[in-house]
Amino acid sequence: MSSFRLNSDLILSYVTIRDKINEIIKSLQNHSEKYFKDSKSYYYSVRESSPKSQVEKVSRLLFLNKTCFNGLYRVNSKGKFNVPLGRYTNPNIVNKENLFAVNQVLRSENISIKCRDFSSIINDVKKGNFIYFDPPYQPVSKTANFTSYTNRDFSYQDLKRLAKLSEKLNSIGCMVMLSNSNSEKVQELFPSSRWDVEEIEANRAINSDSKKRTGHSELLIKNY
Fold first, then answer.
1. Per-residue model confidence (pLDDT) at position 26
2. Domain covering 117-222 assigned CATH 3.40.50.150 in the classification
């Protein structure tokens, strides 16, 4: 099984949790101790920091994920993480059980992790392979336009490239599944005449208004 991502920070996290789990836990414990002494000051000092070592880079990312607003990952045009401090009383910064479980999964010989554009998968697949795409969702309104998990947006042109790639994978004989928002653009690129399109209800953990976290419609699209 291969995982293709363009977010280099995320790829580095996978690799480091796989190869340096004890160092990661030790670094997170240090973050945890300092955070609980002065959460606000320490959070923003870490957010503005730029560690050099592999372990400290990943530890910083995991710490911010556990203490930022709703666990949101977002960067600005310069690639800098810019999410504010979350409202937590006792965040689980050092979740050893989960980290060791992820470590065991990632150490499997059947898993490879690669930082590439999604289109490169065409060079690695063969008939019968299962491919799942989970790109940033297309906006369903003018205000719901978050597509920036890196300093490069996932644009409508990227979605069109993904649609063409999915058609090619289908012609090869691969099993293809992808999820995205229930928007007109997604429906146009993945019409129900050629794809099995299922509308599903989903909740949103990331919304400043808790009343707006439920009742969202998504599309699950597949060719089998």
1. 98
2. yes
Report how far residue 111's alpha carbon sits from residue 104's, in angstroms, rounded to the nearest whole number: 11
Residue spans of the chain under pLDDT 70: 1-6, 141-152, 204-215
Residue 199's identity, in one-letter code, is E
Handedness of CA 93, 96, 60, 32 (dihedral sign): positive
Token readout for 46 is 């870490």
pTM of the model: 0.79
Say how far apart CA 19 and CA 1 lie, in whole Å: 18
Cα angle 32, 84, 215; round to 5: 105
Q: What is the pLDDT of residue 148?
A: 46
Domain assignments of the chain as residue spans, ordered by start: 2-106, 117-222
The beta-strand segments (E) located in the chain are 2-5, 112-115, 130-133, 175-181, 196-202, 216-222
Q: What is the pLDDT of residue 150?
A: 46
Closest C-alpha among 66, 68, 69 to residue 29:
66
How is 67-122 classified by DSSP, letter by letter?
Answer: HBGGG---B-TTS-B-PPBP--SS-----HHHHHHHHHHHT-TT-EEEE--GGGGG
In the prediction, which pLDDT does 213 show?
A: 52
| CATH of 2-106 given 3.10.580.10, 1.10.1020.10, 1.10.10.10, 2.40.40.20 | 1.10.1020.10
pLDDT at position 212, please? 53
CA distance 159 to 185: 9
